[in-house]
Amino acid sequence: MRIGVHMSVSGGKHMAFETAKELGCEAIQMFVRNVRGWTSGPLKKKEIDDFLEKKMEFKEEIWPVISHNSYLVNLASLDKEKLEKSFNAMLDELTKVDQLQIEYENMHPGVIPVSDKEETSKLGAFTQIAEQLNKLMKETKDFKVIILLETTAGQGKGLGNKFHHFKTIIDKIQNKDRIGICFDTAHSFAAGYDFTTKKGYEEMWNEFDDVIGLKYLFAFHLNDTDKECGSRVDRHTHIGQGKIGKEPFGFFINDERFINMPGILETPNSDNLKEDVMNLKILKSLRRK
Q1: What is the CATH classification number for the domain harbouring 279?
Q2: pTM summary value
């Protein structure tokens, strides 16, 4: 697995590569637009050129690159204004990602609308998410970026905590070459998938393959959590300091099926990045020599 970190874009998006190199990252994740608001200005030519220059410079060392979308986006929303804003924000995101030649766009599937008929609402939400993704893919039909749906803890009314959620969405996607999954360890553990033993780990991937298909798995978020398995609470913590523990991360890192896939840290951090250095060191120490 190619281990990396979610990078700050302070000082310019291209600087993410410089910092990643210093940290010893092999892959990176970043934000490409304002994630706290609906609107975001267009990328300047110099911004694009600087990024592409650095991406080319480090192409042998740091790849692939993942963009994480805004947490405001909810393609399951029943509010017409919020849905339109979500669609436009995603379209802007995909446009920027294409300009920067980023390989993956990561997003949370969505949040279920409040309803008295929860199961009906879930199916309706999955259908709407797929419809919105199909529209986005048509609008960006010449783009190469693959949209990754991230596994979630299922906190509140969040969707994506069970594998069959993704099957329902993917089955409705017209261009299946543009869709995939990002597996978040903290989220999936909180959702009830216990992979802390080798037996549990293999059983989970057998289920994933049976329900979704491993061909749709493209990336990982490697986070520990301080919440119990099945808690459905999203709380990231440092590798080995949570309920997952250090050793299970070795299952992922040394799995030959995932050798060229990115594994991105999203653990709490301070300005001097000492936590990233610590977590990267721990993950790399788990590699079989």
Answers
A1: 3.20.20.150
A2: 0.96
